[in-house]
Amino acid sequence: MANKQQIEKVMEMFSSATGLTAVYVDIDGKEISDDDQFPPVCQIMRQVPHLRKHCQKCAKCGGFETMKNGQPCIYRCHAGLADFAVPVKSRENTLYGFIISGQVRLEDDENQVKEFLQQKPLDLSYRHDFAAAYSKLPVFSLEKLSASAEVLSTLSAYYLPSILNEEEAKPAKEPAAQAKKHARSKKEIKQALKYIQKHIHQPVTLEEVAGHVYLSPYYFSKLFKKETGETFVSFVNRQKMNLAKDMLANDDLPVSYIAHSLGFREISYFSKVFKRYYQTTPTSYRAMSRKKG
């Protein structure tokens, strides 16, 4: 994975300054860093397959919430711990994954340990060290955790773009790769594709992207279709539906959350577009993919 050792040096700097652990994950929330970089309580949970999946899903959702908001987002993981994420991006805004940190209890969370341990099924009854590890997690105020998140965001923004040279490493995912082959000769279309990829989790309009590459909407629309082989709206929707398909098949996120995370304000319209591409509704597709799995 892209320049893992150099990224881990940035995480070590952050950990030395704040006392918090930091972990590098890909855009699906799956660990790139070694498991021993997690605090003991997280290591124990990740040894249980279904809890590990919950951990990965939390990391993924937290990362994309940060991308949508444009700033570090503090969130609760499934175990009730306070986490935050910052994106790992290149100079060209290609997303490689996220650095996840936190894994702390917040002040006034005295009942959090008891509530989590009472959940069923945890499959952790055989780990006598789990309750002790959970109780020994650091306790932060929300203000201190927010300040730590800003530190990691600042370090990442300063160091990571230069580390992640796109000529040296392949990105974790490149939704527009196929279209880029057709657009190689056109600088404006290359810039447009990168802009679309960066904002794929938001509503993206033709006028907005045309303005970004300093072309009139009419000329940009014609050029885009000539170079990519499809209309702007069709291309953007196809990229969004490809992401939606993966999320439906691999995650338990509500359809409404998936729709909103891809920039659709109305779930009914999201379902209509999805059905246009896959001849079935999002809910039916999820059910069929689970049966096949």
Automatic annotation (TrEMBL):
Keywords: DNA-binding, Transcription, Transcription regulation
Superkingdom of origin: Bacteria
Domain HTH araC/xylS-type: 190-288
SUPFAM superfamilies: Homeodomain-like (SSF46689)
An example Gene Ontology molecular-function term: DNA-binding transcription factor activity
Protein name: Ligand-binding sensor domain-containing protein
Organism: Heyndrickxia coagulans DSM 1 = ATCC 7050
Biological classification of the source: Bacteria, Bacillati, Bacillota, Bacilli, Bacillales
